[in-house]
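REQUEST ID: PR-0412
SUBMITTED BY: lab tech R.K.
PRIORITY: routine
TASK: structure prediction, single protein chain
INPUT:
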Amino acid sequence: MKKWMFIVISTVLLLAGCSSKTSNSSNSKNVTQELTYASTSDVVGLSPILTNDSVSANVINQVYETLFKRNPKTMQIEPLLAESYDNPNDKTWIISLKKGIKFQDGTDFNAEAVKYTFDKFRDPKTAAPRASLLEPVESVNVIDDYKVEIKTKYPYGPLLAALAHTASSIVSPESDKNSDLMKKPVGTGPFKFVSWTPGDEIVLEGNKDYWNGAPKLKKVTFKVVPEVSTAISMLQTGKVQFIDALPAEQVKRLESIKNVKVSKAEGTPVYYLGFNMKKAPMNNLAFRQAVAYGLDRKAYIGQLNGLGIEGNSVIGPKVFGYNEISEDSGYSFDLEKAKSLVKDNGFAGKEVKMLVPNRDMYLKMAEIAQSQMTEIGLKVKLETMEWGTFLDAATKGQYDVTFLGWANSTADGSELLYPNFHSDNIGTSNRISYNNPQFDQLVNESRQIIDPNGRKEKLKEANELLVKDAPVIVMNQGVVTSAVDTSVKGIEIDPTGQWSLYNVHRE
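STATUS: complete
OUTPUT:
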């Protein structure tokens, strides 16, 4: 029997923040423990089971918790609501839970809550957009009040990474049965839901009964500010204290503001142009190759002010399974070759519908890609949509080409390739409808091997096949960014782009 025990010693510095009415909030003598975060998009919803987007996850991560978490510094998996786990065999996981924890509705966190959450998550009737995370799970069984058994259909190497994902957050069974968690979330986390005004703001308050000690932040507001330039002005004047996912063209402006600190670090996100593989000529390799050769991605990345990393590999350097050799499998910019492929295959003048979410980084990608695809002989028509509407349209395949991203919250290559490109997930998270049996088999093997080296080899093969087949073209590997008022202390953004406000305070 393989035994794993975690001893967690947490020294938690709990501090918090909000805006003052002065132009430089960091010099205010009356800083309250409140904080306002601004995003250009509203959440899709507030249930971890029913959402799978970074905007919603930012709120969900403050209210809910998972059994395990990834250490933002070491990127190693550590327990959170779990205490320890055993592996009696390679298809059985016995997880012991922390005791004395309550949900924000006053009910107990226990093994029954874990079983309820994971059973609902896996139920096809639920249609959870990230159900693929627990697809290998055969059953979830309660051993006693604080011990749960998870049996898998086959050895599943990334299980702990899957259990650390936002979508695997444990929900209150009582609240889920009696209310709508999409509108009123109830978890075990350090912040409690107060209100949501769609299109405007979400308000949370510090959970004074939080099991690991109450946060110092008394109030957190997630403000929807559609124009990023407006959000930056609000940051400068102290009406907002925190923004992330910074647009490249605004970095120099942000760095010049005295009361703002800008942070940048290489991350796990990947951003790519995706082809609708159910439509012609997008399902023609020659067409995809023409576009791949026609995109001058190096020139595009040069405009990102250090906020993007060039590469052909879908699995990026910060993600488990990356191999530098795989970069050579892709396509380099060759304008004449692109034009020749378009002309020789009868694609000249083809009208292409390019679907784009109204987020600055995607709009910039679209602007440049539209120009370059036009230059090789295509006619590209842009259609922009609000974030939630875009996700729905992309899932339904209402486009020819589009721009997508993946935060890689698990930092695991299998859990990048499987949800996005495996045929099991066409109609849900595989929004490009890619279907390649050889690729599927390699991804399956990468998930069913426990040995890390064996998994890496299968991921290398699958990744290189994907890059050569080009159902997606990597625009850039991500850099995670933030801009915070200098009065805010304790914010750490990990390589996946996720953050917690639990250890944050204002000075």
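NOTES: DSSP finds 14 helices and 20 strands in the chain.
REVIEWED BY: pending
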